[in-house]
Amino acid sequence: MKAWQINAYGGPEVFKLVDLPDPSPKSGHILVEIKAFGINRSELYTRQGHSGDAVTLPRVLGIECVGVVKDSGGSDLQIGQKVGAAMGHMGRLYDGGYAEMALIPRSNVYPIDTSLDWATVGALPEMYLTAWGVIKEAIDLPRNSSLLIRGGSSSVGLACASIAKEMGCTVLATTRKEEKIPILKAAGVDHVIIDDGQIASKVKAIVPGGVAGVVELVGIEKTIMDCLQSTAPKGTVGMVGFLGDTWDYKFFPWMPSTVKLTLYSSETLNTEYATPVLQRVVDQVAAGKYKSNIHQVFGFGELPKAHKMMESNQAAGKLVVLTEN
Asked: What count of other Cβ atoms lies within 10 Å of the Cβ of residue 179?
């Protein structure tokens, strides 16, 4: 099989298109014939060398993929069945989705029933499972309330907008670039705030008393503190991303009374939880209630180009790679 492998850390040029032996079937593991996969910022950080002992080289990166079952490993899945896969150390401790095939533990493979095209399905697993987790599990956002998305034009931010709007919530989102306002509006955002680093007063001018919840995707001390000040008493700020390229905290913020700060990590995903969620997501996308938020689709040979686009912050939404051009 063909795969994009790294043997050293650095820029997009460290990716090498190589021929590797097809993975050998293994009990309790699913051999997936990959049709598409999304590109994620965590893979960019890994490529740059920021994942430490969590990754060994050489490695095929990729924390998600979609495709069909080629071998079921003696599990309940059927050969030819459509599946998505995400997390569970994919692309870190074992080879991940940047390939034509991957061998993935059954616990991180999620069967799906859908007629959506592969590019659309490929955009969904990590993006929507993360958005669902931070809104439903970390924040526990009440229906018909309000949500602020800090870093709204990211793929997860746009997915959060879809979920919150379907819940009847008023959605506020930030961006640093005027040209991204139409993208956020098209995603269903009610109020777009240009982020100058201090937005709490702007938020409370729209939602007096503060929002019920915040999805914090920037992840630096300044924005976290500002988000806490944007939140209503007993509201929750859910950290889920590191668009600010910082992920090592040596501070404990002085939080407003009764406002909560929490973290959601998709590392906790497993098939029992994620399978019904992902099925709901693909059904909602098919029904037009959730958006796929695809910025651009690349051919398999264009993977380094996709990474270059992500690294330069040109994308507003999800970057997807198809294994078949």
From this structure: 9
